[in-house]
Amino acid sequence: MKGKIGLEEHFAIDETISDSVGFLDDKVWPKLKENLLDFREKRIGIMDQYNIQMMILSLNAPAVQAIHEPKRAIEISVRSNDVLAEEVNRLPDRFAGLAALPMQSPEVAIEELERCVKDLGFIGILVNGFSQIDDPESAVYLDLPQYRDFWKKVEELDVPFYLHPRNPLPSDARIYDGHPWLLGPTWAFGQETAVHALRLMCSGLFDDFPNLKIILGHMGEGLPFNLWRVDNRNAWVNESPSYPAKKTISHYFQENFYITTSGNFSTPALLTTMLEVGVDRILFSTDYPFEAVSHAANWFDNLDISENDMKKIGRENSKMLFKLNID
After folding, report:
1. Is residue 180 situated within a structural domain?
2. Residue 326 is assigned to a structural domain of this protein
3. pLDDT tens digits for 90-117?
4. Whole-angstrom Cα distance, residue 282 to residue 303?
5. Domain that holds residue 254
6. What is the pTM of this model?
7. Cα–Cα distance for residue pair 295/298, rounded to 1 Å
8. Catalytic member of 14, 149, 208, 287
9. Which residues lie closer than 8 Å to 128 by C-beta, 6 or more apart?
C-alpha cells in the first residue's frame, strides 16, 4: 500500500542514545545507534522503498522519564524537541513530531507542551511511562492527582498522547530475576504499560476529561485480549469494582484509546483488535529502528482485509487523529 504513515518511529540525540543500549544484541548496537541518530541518509530511503509517506517521530526510551533530576530532565526534553523541530522543518512532508516532556515537573511539562504545539508545530506527545523524580528509585505514574492540570491542558490543546513502554525499575522487577530475556519487548514492556493504562482508566481521568486521546503501541499491550476479564472478573458474585471511575474499563478503552501495530505484526492479533475496538482506532506503525520497516510493511501490505480497512489503518486514521494536512 502506498502512502502509509508510521507513528511510533524513534530517533535519539547524543544525550539519550545510551538509553537504547542493551535492548538488542551487542553485535547490532552499532547499526541501531546509527539508525537512531540518522534522520535523512538512511531513513528516507527505507521509507521510499516500503511506501512510507510520513514518519511521526519520537525520542527513544526511557530518556527524559529516567532522568531523576528535574532540572536535567527539563534540559534534555527541550534539547530533544528543538532537534526534532529542526528536522521536521527540513522535511515537513515526510516527518512530524511528538513532544518529549519532563513529567518530573507537571508545571514545566505544561509549558513545554504548549511551546511544542504552538511554536514548534508538534502534533502530539509521547511519554515513556512512569517518571523517576528526585529519587532514582521512585516511579511516579500519570494517574496521580498532581497531573490533573497537565491532562486538562492536553485535552484543551486536543493533541493525542502516546503512552510508550519502559522496563520496570529493578526493585519492582523481581518476577524477572534470572530471566532477563523476559524484559523489554518480549514481555515486561507490555505488562508495565498495560498496568499504567489501566491505572489511567480506573482513576476517573476520562470522566474528568472525556475527550482525551491516548495511544498504545504493540497492538494495545495485550489489553484488547483481556477486556472482558478485566470488566467481569468473578461476575457471579455480582459486585461492582471499587475503583473511582464511573464506567467500565472497556468503555474507556473503546472511547479514549487508539492502538498501533508497532512491533506486533500478527494477523490474528490485528483481527482480534479490530473486533474489540473497531478499525477506526487502529493505526499502522513499525517501531523503527527497533523493528524493521520491511517486516511491518510487507506484513501489512499482504493482509487479507478490505481495501477500505487497509486505507484506514495504513493512513486515514492517522490523518484524522493528528489532523494531518497531507494528500
Report:
1. yes
2. no
3. 999 999 999 999 999 999 999 999 999 9
4. 14
5. 4-321
6. 0.97
7. 5
8. 287
9. 59, 61, 62, 63, 64, 65, 66, 164, 165, 166
Residue 51 pLDDT greater than 90, yes or no: yes
What does the chain come to in residues? 327
Whether residue 214 contacts residue 221, with contact meaning beta carbons closer than 8 Å, is answered with: no
Active site residue 158: no
pLDDT at position 195 over 90: yes
CB count, 10 Å around CB of 184?
A: 18
- Distance, in Å, from the CA atom of 39 to the CA atom of 289, rounded to the nearest integer, reads 11
Report the number of distinct structural domains present in the chain.
1
For the cut 90, the answer to whether the pLDDT of residue 61 exceeds it is yes
Once rounded to an integer, what is the mean pLDDT over residues 223-250? 91
What Cα–Cα distance (Å) separates residue 129 from each residue in 158, 169, 238? Answer: 20, 11, 34
Tell me how far apart the alpha carbons of residues 255 and 258 are, in angstroms, rounded to a whole number.
9
Please report where in the chains the cell 524513534 appears, as a residue: 10
Q: Which three cell numbers stand for residue 232?
A: 467481569
Task: Say if residue 289 is preceded by a cis peptide, omega within 30 of 0.
Answer: yes
Domain for residue 49, yes or no? yes
Q: What is the pLDDT of residue 221?
A: 98
Is the CB of residue 220 less than 8 Å from the CB of residue 259? yes
CATH number of the CATH domain containing 111: 3.20.20.140
